[in-house]
Amino acid sequence: MRRLLLSSLLWPTCLLAHSNEPQDSSALKPRPQLQIGALFSASTYSSQAKDVHGLWRIPGLLMGGEALPNAKGAQLDDAHLWARYQWQPNTTVHAAIGRHAGHTELSVENLYLDYQPPSLKKLNLAAGLVDAKFSPNASSHPSTRELAETSLLAQAFWGDSIHDLGLQLDWQVHPQLKLGMELYDGDFFPASKGEGVQVLFAQTAQSWRQWQFKAGVWGLQAKALERADERYQVGHSHGSAYTPPDIRFSGDSALAGVWLESSLALSEKLQAHVDYEAVQAKTIGSLSETNYRAHYQAEHLGYAFNPSLAYGAWKLSYRFEKLSLDNRLTGAGAEVLAQDANLLNSRQPQRQTLQLAWQAHKNLRLRAAYTQDETLPKVDERFSVGLVWQQVLHED
Prior knowledge:
Blueprint: H1 2-7, H2 11-15, E1 34-45, E2 73-88, E3 91-100, E4 107-115, E5 123-131, H3 152-158, E6 163-174, E7 177-184, E8 197-208, E9 211-227, E10 248-265, E11 270-289, E12 292-311, E13 314-330, H4 334-340, E14 350-361, E15 364-374, E16 380-395
Antiparallel strand pairs: 1-2, 1-16, 2-3, 3-4, 4-5, 5-6, 6-7, 7-8, 8-9, 9-10, 10-11, 11-12, 12-13, 13-14, 14-15, 15-16
């Protein structure tokens, strides 16, 4: 796996000499000064993955952030109102508010300034409350992605979806190669607020005849101080009276990943698509509870494979996701903390999803899915149906 991630750093450079520059027709159209839009996703699930206490805590994995499961029955997956304003020729203001399943109130998702220096048009800066860009799954919502449920990798490694105060720098060094840096306050898993997160990435986009290809590699460093799993505390609704032990983590996490998206037009109406992502995470630090403390080390791997076939307005998708979890605890409190932190695991979690979606209208998509969830000792098989609505409400 290490060789895979390291060798992937060479991909963008090697591909530059073997591709045609992708044509983006949207780049020729002038953007309106003001755009306002809305996104909405709702689903109904036949069951929910939960343990004996009614919670979703994957054995062998420290969890956090917004990594919450779907609820049984009907639920609002997410609803967002967004706006984009071209303040100056090289300056754009972005804002978004929204609500997610498991939350009881609205929150500000985005509020940032995007700036492109006139003398350095290949450079782009963004500052404020931003979405992460290092992976297609870094910041996503049910209303914007193909499948309603969040990627297992995103839930396990960065707590679902990243929206944080930060500074982003993108440099388009070549039509097919982009380099980027992201600096964050750290108010998302696996960091803790104020401790900081640093990300470096490289991304490439290629096209040749009917074939389209995108890929990226990235590395992330995060620091945590007394980080707790706050998913089942104030501000979340989860339908359980049980509160898990208050385990705190202090230490460092290093993540590395590679992703790719490939599509091929087989005919005028038929298109094949494949997504793949792999993530490696190393953690070192300490776990503590009221009267216990232990040294903690972990090395986790995960991957997701997502092929799909689209014909006209219909799309059939399959996703297979798997985690490999390895934890080591040493010290006087190791035995107690391993139990209380839910780090004892006898199997490697995985999840499979099969979905059929229909684009009923340019603004409306319907989807039905079957999921076999093996992230907990008890396997959960569930069916779901849902809808997605996306629309630009105003532009001027």
